[in-house]
Amino acid sequence: MNILVVNAGSSSIKYQLIDMTTKLPLSSGIVERIGLEKGVIIHKTFLNGEEIKIKETFPIPNHAVGLERVAELLTDKEIGVITDPSEIKAVGHRLVHGGEAFTKTVVITNEVKAKVKELFPLAPLHNPANLTGVEVAEQVFPNATQIGVFDTAFHQTMPEVAYRYAIPKTLYNEMGIRKYGFHGTSHKYVSEKAIEYLGKQDAKVITIHLGNGASMAAVDGGVCIDTTMGLGPLCGLIMGTRSGDIDPSIIFYLVEQKGYSIEKVSNILNKESGMEGLTGDTDMRDVEDRFHKGDAEAVLAYKMYAYRIKQYIGNYAAAMNGLDAIVFTAGIGENDTVARKLVCDNMDYLGIELDEEKNNIRSKNIREINRANARTKVLVIPTNEELEIARQAFELIK
Ligand code: AMP
Asked: Taking the CA atoms of the chain, what radius of gyration do you get in angstroms?
């Protein structure tokens, strides 16, 4: 059975067609610059161990035009991987914010769409685009079941003590202001892999998702009990362009002293902070190059980046009253040996002892990079959010 995974943004659609027998993608790609003068589709197919990549540039006025072209490419006589769109049994949609309404994956009905719309204020950049993706997929793949997988759902098990903020209770009761957390699909996927690897159902695991966006989760016996992102994806760890945790007074100070608008402050904290703010470089590979050359800004930024993660490891080990494993995942977590080393340095109190040789080995597989007799496992587990979305969609319709 084939499942199409769709992640629709405001001007892009990422997609992957996954064969659920092999759990491997048949095709993947991205439609970009939707609504701009020149749209782009980069489409890849993987057949018989061979990768074919094509790039098309043409005006893509809206998401529907983009997804229709994707359907044509998937069924193309020469490079197609299926013969008819009806071979796609389900479309699994990444939906960012499910609020308190969605604790698990659902078949998308009109009721679900109305609820996702109600949640627009909580994720004004993501939920409207996600819903557009759903509506367009309904037109282009009318025979497929549309399924919604929420980024927030895995974190809905957090106890109230973790998800409430100490602000007037009416703000929670009337507006739903609380911690929700994101990257739930990735935290769920890698924590389950870790439990499987450890062979211990009640394992206490801290998952550390370090991509352009970054977050951590405390997962006790498969259940998420806390996470670093909050009402939105700005808080917690230092990220590519986001500040992570800051003293909220900074916001008032900027507004009062500089006369900045809320929009300007939001832009600073979301787009001009993090690694970008500290070094001028957003991509961790560039910061890493500078780190190796001894560049003072890059060294400080890396140390700050790791220090924040260390603090949350301590925080979550305390919250769970124990720790069996920490798991590094996503672009930086899977590849950046410097970040992993700086995080694990001087953490033997918590049983974390890195084996530097193992840390330097490059691999796409699950691996253990702690010293042989260390009390706490340090694991690198490649995330696969698309496969997890497809897997959850498959479970619902099989
Ligand atoms: P993601 O959001 O998971 O795609 O991760 C993107 C981040 O991973 C970017 O900051 C990349 O610089 C970083 N990244 C990818 N590959 C490497 C690598 N080999 N070393 C360091 N960082 C990497």
From this structure: 21
